[in-house]
Design a protein that fits this description.
Length: 481
Protein backbone atom coordinates (compact mmCIF):
# COMPACT_ATOMS: atom_id res chain seq x y z
CA UNK A 1 0.00 0.00 0.00
CA UNK A 2 1.28 3.44 -0.94
CA UNK A 3 1.24 6.30 1.52
CA UNK A 4 0.08 8.74 -1.19
CA UNK A 5 -1.29 8.32 -4.70
CA UNK A 6 -1.54 11.48 -6.79
CA UNK A 7 -3.95 11.39 -9.72
CA UNK A 8 -2.60 13.59 -12.50
CA UNK A 9 0.92 14.43 -13.71
CA UNK A 10 0.27 18.03 -14.74
CA UNK A 11 1.77 21.03 -12.95
CA UNK A 12 -0.47 20.62 -9.90
CA UNK A 13 0.21 16.92 -9.46
CA UNK A 14 3.92 17.25 -10.21
CA UNK A 15 4.35 20.19 -7.83
CA UNK A 16 2.53 18.24 -5.11
CA UNK A 17 4.73 15.21 -5.76
CA UNK A 18 7.91 17.26 -5.53
CA UNK A 19 6.89 18.90 -2.26
CA UNK A 20 5.84 15.54 -0.77
CA UNK A 21 9.15 13.99 -1.80
CA UNK A 22 10.74 16.12 0.93
CA UNK A 23 9.35 13.50 3.34
CA UNK A 24 9.78 9.78 3.92
CA UNK A 25 6.67 8.73 2.07
CA UNK A 26 5.92 6.03 -0.49
CA UNK A 27 4.40 8.13 -3.28
CA UNK A 28 3.01 7.23 -6.69
CA UNK A 29 1.78 9.60 -9.43
CA UNK A 30 -0.59 8.04 -11.95
CA UNK A 31 -1.76 9.50 -15.25
CA UNK A 32 -3.84 8.13 -18.09
CA UNK A 33 -1.49 9.64 -20.68
CA UNK A 34 1.96 8.43 -21.74
CA UNK A 35 3.94 11.29 -20.20
CA UNK A 36 3.77 14.22 -17.83
CA UNK A 37 2.31 17.52 -19.07
CA UNK A 38 -0.24 16.06 -21.50
CA UNK A 39 -3.37 17.96 -20.43
CA UNK A 40 -4.10 21.58 -19.53
CA UNK A 41 -0.48 22.06 -18.45
CA UNK A 42 0.76 21.81 -22.05
CA UNK A 43 -1.83 24.11 -23.66
CA UNK A 44 -2.10 27.46 -21.90
CA UNK A 45 -0.89 31.05 -22.04
CA UNK A 46 2.47 30.31 -20.35
CA UNK A 47 1.84 33.38 -18.19
CA UNK A 48 2.93 34.00 -14.61
CA UNK A 49 0.08 36.22 -13.44
CA UNK A 50 0.61 39.02 -10.95
CA UNK A 51 -2.65 38.14 -9.16
CA UNK A 52 -4.31 41.48 -9.74
CA UNK A 53 -7.53 40.08 -11.19
CA UNK A 54 -8.24 37.50 -8.45
CA UNK A 55 -10.99 38.37 -6.00
CA UNK A 56 -9.40 39.43 -2.69
CA UNK A 57 -9.76 36.94 0.13
CA UNK A 58 -10.11 33.91 -2.14
CA UNK A 59 -7.85 30.89 -2.13
CA UNK A 60 -7.23 31.62 -5.81
CA UNK A 61 -5.79 35.04 -4.95
CA UNK A 62 -3.66 33.62 -2.13
CA UNK A 63 -2.19 30.84 -4.27
CA UNK A 64 -1.60 33.18 -7.24
CA UNK A 65 0.39 35.70 -5.23
CA UNK A 66 2.39 33.04 -3.37
CA UNK A 67 3.03 31.09 -6.56
CA UNK A 68 4.29 34.23 -8.30
CA UNK A 69 6.73 34.84 -5.44
CA UNK A 70 8.00 31.24 -5.57
CA UNK A 71 8.43 31.08 -9.35
CA UNK A 72 11.80 32.77 -9.75
CA UNK A 73 13.68 30.83 -7.05
CA UNK A 74 12.02 27.62 -8.25
CA UNK A 75 13.12 28.26 -11.84
CA UNK A 76 16.72 28.59 -10.62
CA UNK A 77 16.54 25.46 -8.46
CA UNK A 78 15.03 23.34 -11.23
CA UNK A 79 16.60 25.03 -14.27
CA UNK A 80 13.58 25.99 -16.39
CA UNK A 81 12.88 29.14 -18.40
CA UNK A 82 11.24 32.05 -16.58
CA UNK A 83 11.31 35.80 -17.17
CA UNK A 84 9.69 38.54 -15.13
CA UNK A 85 8.75 40.77 -18.06
CA UNK A 86 5.80 42.62 -16.45
CA UNK A 87 2.22 42.91 -17.65
CA UNK A 88 -0.19 45.61 -18.80
CA UNK A 89 -3.99 45.66 -18.58
CA UNK A 90 -5.37 48.04 -21.21
CA UNK A 91 -8.32 50.39 -20.92
CA UNK A 92 -9.76 51.51 -24.28
CA UNK A 93 -12.29 54.17 -23.26
CA UNK A 94 -12.60 56.91 -20.65
CA UNK A 95 -15.95 55.49 -19.51
CA UNK A 96 -14.14 52.26 -18.55
CA UNK A 97 -11.67 54.04 -16.26
CA UNK A 98 -13.77 53.33 -13.12
CA UNK A 99 -13.48 49.60 -13.90
CA UNK A 100 -9.72 49.94 -14.35
CA UNK A 101 -9.42 51.78 -11.03
CA UNK A 102 -11.50 49.10 -9.31
CA UNK A 103 -9.13 46.50 -10.66
CA UNK A 104 -6.16 48.55 -9.47
CA UNK A 105 -7.65 48.71 -5.98
CA UNK A 106 -8.17 44.96 -6.08
CA UNK A 107 -4.47 44.62 -6.84
CA UNK A 108 -3.65 46.80 -3.84
CA UNK A 109 -5.91 44.63 -1.66
CA UNK A 110 -4.13 41.52 -2.96
CA UNK A 111 -0.78 43.14 -2.08
CA UNK A 112 0.54 43.02 -5.66
CA UNK A 113 3.92 44.80 -5.56
CA UNK A 114 4.65 48.07 -7.35
CA UNK A 115 1.52 48.26 -9.51
CA UNK A 116 0.56 51.61 -10.97
CA UNK A 117 -1.80 53.18 -13.48
CA UNK A 118 -0.12 54.56 -16.61
CA UNK A 119 -1.60 57.37 -18.65
CA UNK A 120 -1.68 57.20 -22.44
CA UNK A 121 1.71 58.83 -22.91
CA UNK A 122 3.44 56.60 -20.35
CA UNK A 123 1.81 53.51 -21.82
CA UNK A 124 2.91 54.22 -25.37
CA UNK A 125 6.41 55.09 -24.24
CA UNK A 126 6.63 51.67 -22.55
CA UNK A 127 5.04 49.76 -25.47
CA UNK A 128 5.17 51.74 -28.74
CA UNK A 129 3.13 49.17 -30.68
CA UNK A 130 0.08 49.43 -28.41
CA UNK A 131 -3.10 50.70 -30.08
CA UNK A 132 -3.74 54.44 -30.04
CA UNK A 133 -7.21 53.52 -28.82
CA UNK A 134 -5.78 52.59 -25.39
CA UNK A 135 -6.18 55.52 -22.99
CA UNK A 136 -4.58 54.01 -19.87
CA UNK A 137 -3.30 50.77 -18.39
CA UNK A 138 -2.38 49.07 -15.13
CA UNK A 139 1.28 48.09 -15.05
CA UNK A 140 2.25 45.10 -12.88
CA UNK A 141 6.02 44.58 -12.88
CA UNK A 142 5.70 41.20 -11.12
CA UNK A 143 3.98 39.58 -14.13
CA UNK A 144 6.06 37.05 -16.00
CA UNK A 145 6.34 34.39 -18.68
CA UNK A 146 7.48 30.80 -18.28
CA UNK A 147 7.98 27.60 -20.26
CA UNK A 148 5.03 25.49 -19.05
CA UNK A 149 6.51 22.26 -20.39
CA UNK A 150 9.89 22.94 -18.84
CA UNK A 151 8.34 23.81 -15.50
CA UNK A 152 6.09 20.74 -15.37
CA UNK A 153 8.80 18.34 -16.52
CA UNK A 154 11.36 19.82 -14.12
CA UNK A 155 9.10 19.33 -11.09
CA UNK A 156 8.25 15.78 -12.14
CA UNK A 157 11.90 14.85 -12.79
CA UNK A 158 12.94 16.24 -9.42
CA UNK A 159 10.14 14.33 -7.68
CA UNK A 160 11.19 11.14 -9.48
CA UNK A 161 14.85 11.62 -8.55
CA UNK A 162 13.72 11.97 -4.94
CA UNK A 163 11.95 8.61 -4.98
CA UNK A 164 8.45 9.27 -6.36
CA UNK A 165 7.11 6.54 -8.64
CA UNK A 166 5.27 7.50 -11.85
CA UNK A 167 2.82 5.19 -13.62
CA UNK A 168 1.69 6.30 -17.08
CA UNK A 169 -1.00 4.91 -19.36
CA UNK A 170 -2.89 4.19 -16.16
CA UNK A 171 -6.49 5.36 -16.09
CA UNK A 172 -8.46 5.43 -12.84
CA UNK A 173 -11.90 3.94 -13.32
CA UNK A 174 -13.29 3.75 -9.78
CA UNK A 175 -12.23 4.74 -6.28
CA UNK A 176 -13.61 3.13 -3.14
CA UNK A 177 -12.95 3.48 0.55
CA UNK A 178 -11.28 0.49 2.18
CA UNK A 179 -9.87 -0.27 5.61
CA UNK A 180 -6.94 2.10 6.14
CA UNK A 181 -7.31 4.02 2.89
CA UNK A 182 -8.58 3.78 -0.68
CA UNK A 183 -8.48 1.34 -3.56
CA UNK A 184 -8.21 2.70 -7.09
CA UNK A 185 -9.31 0.38 -9.86
CA UNK A 186 -7.37 1.14 -13.06
CA UNK A 187 -6.91 -0.36 -16.51
CA UNK A 188 -3.63 -1.75 -15.13
CA UNK A 189 -4.95 -3.34 -11.96
CA UNK A 190 -5.81 -2.09 -8.48
CA UNK A 191 -3.74 0.38 -6.49
CA UNK A 192 -4.11 0.81 -2.74
CA UNK A 193 -3.11 3.87 -0.80
CA UNK A 194 -3.56 5.54 2.58
CA UNK A 195 -4.12 8.96 1.01
CA UNK A 196 -5.32 10.23 -2.38
CA UNK A 197 -4.45 13.59 -3.91
CA UNK A 198 -6.92 14.47 -6.65
CA UNK A 199 -5.05 16.64 -9.17
CA UNK A 200 -6.93 15.39 -12.21
CA UNK A 201 -7.69 18.72 -13.90
CA UNK A 202 -10.88 18.58 -15.97
CA UNK A 203 -11.62 15.16 -14.46
CA UNK A 204 -11.21 16.19 -10.82
CA UNK A 205 -14.97 16.42 -10.23
CA UNK A 206 -15.39 12.83 -11.46
CA UNK A 207 -13.04 11.46 -8.79
CA UNK A 208 -14.27 13.81 -6.06
CA UNK A 209 -17.85 12.69 -6.67
CA UNK A 210 -16.88 9.01 -6.38
CA UNK A 211 -16.08 9.42 -2.69
CA UNK A 212 -18.04 12.46 -1.49
CA UNK A 213 -21.74 13.18 -1.07
CA UNK A 214 -20.95 16.90 -1.49
CA UNK A 215 -20.73 17.06 -5.27
CA UNK A 216 -18.72 19.50 -7.33
CA UNK A 217 -18.97 20.27 -11.05
CA UNK A 218 -16.21 21.22 -13.46
CA UNK A 219 -16.82 22.54 -16.97
CA UNK A 220 -14.11 22.21 -19.63
CA UNK A 221 -13.49 25.76 -20.85
CA UNK A 222 -11.70 25.62 -24.17
CA UNK A 223 -9.18 28.30 -25.06
CA UNK A 224 -7.80 28.64 -28.60
CA UNK A 225 -4.42 30.20 -29.36
CA UNK A 226 -2.21 31.22 -32.27
CA UNK A 227 1.58 31.05 -32.05
CA UNK A 228 3.55 33.42 -34.27
CA UNK A 229 7.00 32.95 -35.76
CA UNK A 230 10.09 34.13 -33.90
CA UNK A 231 10.48 36.96 -36.41
CA UNK A 232 7.67 38.66 -34.43
CA UNK A 233 9.42 38.28 -31.08
CA UNK A 234 10.10 41.99 -30.56
CA UNK A 235 6.50 43.08 -31.13
CA UNK A 236 5.84 43.65 -27.42
CA UNK A 237 8.02 43.22 -24.36
CA UNK A 238 5.24 43.01 -21.76
CA UNK A 239 2.26 40.67 -21.55
CA UNK A 240 -0.67 42.70 -22.86
CA UNK A 241 -4.13 42.03 -21.40
CA UNK A 242 -7.44 43.72 -22.04
CA UNK A 243 -9.81 44.62 -19.21
CA UNK A 244 -11.23 41.26 -18.06
CA UNK A 245 -14.81 40.26 -18.75
CA UNK A 246 -17.26 37.55 -17.70
CA UNK A 247 -15.20 34.64 -19.05
CA UNK A 248 -11.75 35.72 -17.97
CA UNK A 249 -8.90 37.93 -18.98
CA UNK A 250 -9.77 38.24 -22.66
CA UNK A 251 -7.38 37.98 -25.61
CA UNK A 252 -3.74 38.61 -24.70
CA UNK A 253 -0.65 39.37 -26.72
CA UNK A 254 2.57 38.21 -25.14
CA UNK A 255 6.15 37.32 -25.89
CA UNK A 256 7.20 33.80 -24.97
CA UNK A 257 10.40 32.80 -23.21
CA UNK A 258 11.55 31.24 -26.48
CA UNK A 259 11.16 34.41 -28.57
CA UNK A 260 7.80 33.84 -30.27
CA UNK A 261 4.60 35.87 -29.90
CA UNK A 262 1.47 34.18 -28.53
CA UNK A 263 -2.10 35.46 -28.91
CA UNK A 264 -5.31 34.11 -27.32
CA UNK A 265 -7.22 32.49 -25.72
CA UNK A 266 -10.92 32.25 -26.42
CA UNK A 267 -13.26 30.98 -23.68
CA UNK A 268 -15.73 28.40 -24.87
CA UNK A 269 -17.58 26.23 -22.34
CA UNK A 270 -18.41 22.75 -23.61
CA UNK A 271 -18.95 19.24 -22.27
CA UNK A 272 -16.13 17.13 -23.72
CA UNK A 273 -12.91 17.23 -21.65
CA UNK A 274 -11.05 15.43 -24.46
CA UNK A 275 -11.99 17.95 -27.16
CA UNK A 276 -9.07 20.23 -27.93
CA UNK A 277 -9.84 20.97 -31.56
CA UNK A 278 -9.58 24.48 -32.91
CA UNK A 279 -12.26 26.26 -34.91
CA UNK A 280 -12.10 28.72 -37.76
CA UNK A 281 -14.40 31.05 -35.83
CA UNK A 282 -12.34 30.86 -32.66
CA UNK A 283 -9.02 31.49 -34.35
CA UNK A 284 -10.48 34.35 -36.39
CA UNK A 285 -11.69 35.92 -33.14
CA UNK A 286 -8.25 35.53 -31.58
CA UNK A 287 -6.57 37.30 -34.48
CA UNK A 288 -9.18 40.06 -34.68
CA UNK A 289 -9.27 40.74 -30.94
CA UNK A 290 -5.48 40.74 -30.62
CA UNK A 291 -5.23 43.57 -33.16
CA UNK A 292 -7.35 45.73 -30.90
CA UNK A 293 -4.48 45.75 -28.40
CA UNK A 294 -1.63 45.69 -30.93
CA UNK A 295 -2.83 46.69 -34.43
CA UNK A 296 0.42 45.55 -36.05
CA UNK A 297 0.15 41.91 -34.91
CA UNK A 298 1.31 40.09 -38.06
CA UNK A 299 -1.33 37.37 -38.12
CA UNK A 300 0.10 36.02 -41.38
CA UNK A 301 3.11 34.90 -39.36
CA UNK A 302 1.10 32.29 -37.43
CA UNK A 303 3.04 29.01 -37.51
CA UNK A 304 0.60 26.91 -35.50
CA UNK A 305 -2.64 27.04 -33.55
CA UNK A 306 -3.79 24.94 -30.62
CA UNK A 307 -6.35 24.79 -27.83
CA UNK A 308 -6.55 23.56 -24.25
CA UNK A 309 -9.25 23.03 -21.64
CA UNK A 310 -9.29 24.94 -18.37
CA UNK A 311 -10.96 23.19 -15.42
CA UNK A 312 -13.65 25.74 -14.57
CA UNK A 313 -15.36 24.97 -11.25
CA UNK A 314 -18.88 26.39 -10.90
CA UNK A 315 -17.86 28.76 -8.08
CA UNK A 316 -14.69 29.89 -9.90
CA UNK A 317 -12.53 28.97 -6.94
CA UNK A 318 -9.70 26.57 -6.20
CA UNK A 319 -10.65 23.62 -3.99
CA UNK A 320 -7.60 22.49 -2.01
CA UNK A 321 -8.63 20.56 1.09
CA UNK A 322 -9.23 17.19 2.72
CA UNK A 323 -12.83 16.22 2.12
CA UNK A 324 -14.95 16.41 5.27
CA UNK A 325 -16.85 13.23 4.41
CA UNK A 326 -13.88 11.35 2.86
CA UNK A 327 -10.92 11.43 5.26
CA UNK A 328 -7.45 11.26 3.69
CA UNK A 329 -8.85 12.23 0.28
CA UNK A 330 -7.34 15.61 -0.68
CA UNK A 331 -8.71 17.70 -3.53
CA UNK A 332 -6.62 19.97 -5.70
CA UNK A 333 -9.58 20.69 -7.96
CA UNK A 334 -10.91 23.55 -10.05
CA UNK A 335 -7.37 24.62 -10.88
CA UNK A 336 -8.01 26.90 -13.85
CA UNK A 337 -6.14 30.12 -14.64
CA UNK A 338 -4.06 31.23 -12.74
CA UNK A 339 -3.28 27.57 -12.06
CA UNK A 340 0.13 27.53 -13.76
CA UNK A 341 1.28 30.48 -11.68
CA UNK A 342 -0.24 29.02 -8.52
CA UNK A 343 1.20 25.51 -8.94
CA UNK A 344 4.30 25.98 -6.72
CA UNK A 345 2.13 27.31 -3.87
CA UNK A 346 -0.54 24.65 -4.41
CA UNK A 347 2.12 21.97 -4.10
CA UNK A 348 3.22 23.39 -0.75
CA UNK A 349 -0.36 23.58 0.50
CA UNK A 350 -1.17 20.02 -0.59
CA UNK A 351 1.98 18.74 1.10
CA UNK A 352 1.08 20.57 4.31
CA UNK A 353 -2.37 18.95 4.32
CA UNK A 354 -1.05 15.45 3.60
CA UNK A 355 1.75 15.73 6.14
CA UNK A 356 -0.76 16.89 8.73
CA UNK A 357 -2.61 13.62 8.13
CA UNK A 358 0.29 11.15 7.84
CA UNK A 359 2.85 12.84 10.14
CA UNK A 360 5.91 11.68 8.13
CA UNK A 361 9.56 12.28 8.95
CA UNK A 362 11.67 14.52 6.73
CA UNK A 363 13.56 12.86 3.88
CA UNK A 364 17.24 13.46 4.74
CA UNK A 365 18.30 12.55 1.18
CA UNK A 366 16.02 15.12 -0.50
CA UNK A 367 17.77 17.11 -3.23
CA UNK A 368 15.77 20.13 -4.38
CA UNK A 369 17.89 20.94 -7.43
CA UNK A 370 17.80 19.61 -10.96
CA UNK A 371 19.78 20.39 -14.10
CA UNK A 372 17.93 20.65 -17.38
CA UNK A 373 19.00 19.56 -20.85
CA UNK A 374 22.12 21.37 -22.07
CA UNK A 375 21.26 23.99 -24.69
CA UNK A 376 24.28 24.58 -26.93
CA UNK A 377 22.83 27.92 -28.05
CA UNK A 378 23.54 29.27 -24.57
CA UNK A 379 27.19 28.19 -24.56
CA UNK A 380 30.21 30.19 -25.64
CA UNK A 381 32.05 29.04 -28.76
CA UNK A 382 34.77 27.53 -26.60
CA UNK A 383 32.26 25.70 -24.39
CA UNK A 384 30.36 24.38 -27.38
CA UNK A 385 33.53 23.16 -29.08
CA UNK A 386 34.52 21.33 -25.91
CA UNK A 387 31.05 19.75 -25.64
CA UNK A 388 31.19 18.51 -29.25
CA UNK A 389 34.64 17.06 -28.69
CA UNK A 390 33.37 15.15 -25.65
CA UNK A 391 29.98 14.24 -27.16
CA UNK A 392 29.95 14.52 -30.97
CA UNK A 393 26.16 14.11 -31.12
CA UNK A 394 25.87 17.74 -29.97
CA UNK A 395 27.38 18.78 -33.29
CA UNK A 396 24.65 17.11 -35.35
CA UNK A 397 21.69 19.45 -35.93
CA UNK A 398 18.39 17.54 -36.17
CA UNK A 399 15.80 20.35 -35.97
CA UNK A 400 17.00 23.20 -38.16
CA UNK A 401 14.22 25.64 -37.22
CA UNK A 402 15.11 25.51 -33.52
CA UNK A 403 18.71 24.30 -34.00
CA UNK A 404 18.18 21.28 -31.74
CA UNK A 405 20.98 18.74 -31.77
CA UNK A 406 21.05 14.96 -31.61
CA UNK A 407 22.76 15.24 -28.23
CA UNK A 408 19.81 17.16 -26.76
CA UNK A 409 17.33 14.62 -28.11
CA UNK A 410 19.34 11.72 -26.68
CA UNK A 411 19.40 13.48 -23.30
CA UNK A 412 15.63 14.05 -23.46
CA UNK A 413 15.03 10.35 -24.07
CA UNK A 414 17.52 8.86 -21.61
CA UNK A 415 17.18 11.18 -18.61
CA UNK A 416 14.79 10.73 -15.65
CA UNK A 417 11.20 10.26 -16.88
CA UNK A 418 12.56 10.49 -20.41
CA UNK A 419 10.57 11.12 -23.58
CA UNK A 420 8.97 8.15 -25.31
CA UNK A 421 7.23 9.91 -28.21
CA UNK A 422 7.72 12.74 -30.69
CA UNK A 423 5.69 15.12 -28.53
CA UNK A 424 7.70 14.07 -25.48
CA UNK A 425 10.90 15.04 -27.29
CA UNK A 426 9.29 18.24 -28.57
CA UNK A 427 8.26 19.43 -25.12
CA UNK A 428 11.72 18.76 -23.70
CA UNK A 429 13.87 20.13 -26.52
CA UNK A 430 11.59 22.16 -28.88
CA UNK A 431 12.49 19.87 -31.77
CA UNK A 432 9.50 20.29 -34.08
CA UNK A 433 8.24 23.56 -32.57
CA UNK A 434 9.73 25.85 -35.18
CA UNK A 435 8.49 27.34 -38.43
CA UNK A 436 8.16 24.03 -40.30
CA UNK A 437 6.33 22.39 -37.36
CA UNK A 438 8.32 19.12 -37.49
CA UNK A 439 8.01 18.78 -41.26
CA UNK A 440 11.72 18.05 -41.70
CA UNK A 441 13.00 16.74 -38.37
CA UNK A 442 10.37 14.11 -37.50
CA UNK A 443 11.98 11.20 -39.43
CA UNK A 444 15.39 11.85 -37.89
CA UNK A 445 13.89 12.24 -34.41
CA UNK A 446 12.02 8.95 -34.89
CA UNK A 447 15.26 7.22 -35.81
CA UNK A 448 16.86 8.44 -32.59
CA UNK A 449 13.86 7.41 -30.46
CA UNK A 450 13.86 3.96 -32.05
CA UNK A 451 17.59 3.52 -31.55
CA UNK A 452 17.68 4.71 -27.95
CA UNK A 453 14.55 2.83 -26.80
CA UNK A 454 14.92 -0.27 -28.95
CA UNK A 455 11.67 0.36 -30.81
CA UNK A 456 10.75 -0.27 -34.42
CA UNK A 457 9.42 2.64 -36.43
CA UNK A 458 6.00 0.99 -36.30
CA UNK A 459 5.99 1.37 -32.49
CA UNK A 460 6.83 5.08 -32.32
CA UNK A 461 3.94 7.43 -31.60
CA UNK A 462 3.28 11.12 -31.74
CA UNK A 463 1.85 11.24 -28.22
CA UNK A 464 1.23 7.70 -27.01
CA UNK A 465 -1.82 5.51 -27.40
CA UNK A 466 -2.79 4.83 -31.01
CA UNK A 467 -1.03 7.89 -32.46
CA UNK A 468 1.49 5.74 -34.35
CA UNK A 469 3.53 7.68 -36.88
CA UNK A 470 4.04 4.67 -39.18
CA UNK A 471 1.23 2.15 -39.63
CA UNK A 472 2.70 -0.18 -42.26
CA UNK A 473 4.99 -0.64 -45.22
CA UNK A 474 4.27 0.69 -48.68
CA UNK A 475 6.81 -1.75 -50.11
CA UNK A 476 8.55 -4.84 -48.80
CA UNK A 477 11.92 -6.24 -49.71
CA UNK A 478 12.19 -9.62 -51.40
CA UNK A 479 13.26 -11.19 -48.11
CA UNK A 480 10.12 -9.92 -46.35
CA UNK A 481 7.65 -11.12 -48.98
Amino acid sequence: MYDVVIIGAGVTGSSSARELSRYNLNICVIDKEEDVCCGTSKANSAIVHSGIDCKPGTLMAEMNVKGNELMEPLSKELDFEFKRNGSLILCFAEEDMPHLKELYQQGIDNKIPDIKILNKEELHEMEPNISDEAVAAIYAPSGGIVCPFGMNIAMAENAYDNGVEFRFNTEVRTIKKIEGGYELATNNGSIRTKCVVNAAGVYADKFHNMVSAKKIHITPRRGEYCLLDKTTGGLVSKTIFQLPGKYGKGILVTPTVHGNTLIGPTADDHDDPESTSTTAEGLAHVCQAATRSVPSVPVRQVITSFSGNRAHEDNHEFIIEELSDAPFFVDAAGIESPGLTSAPAIGVKVADIVCGLLKPEKNPAFNGTRKGIVDPKKLSEEEYAKLIKEKPAYGNIICRCETVTEGEIIDAITRSLGAKSLDGVKRRTRAGMGRCQAGFCSPKTMEIIGRELGLSQLEITKNGGKSNMVVGYSKKSAQEV
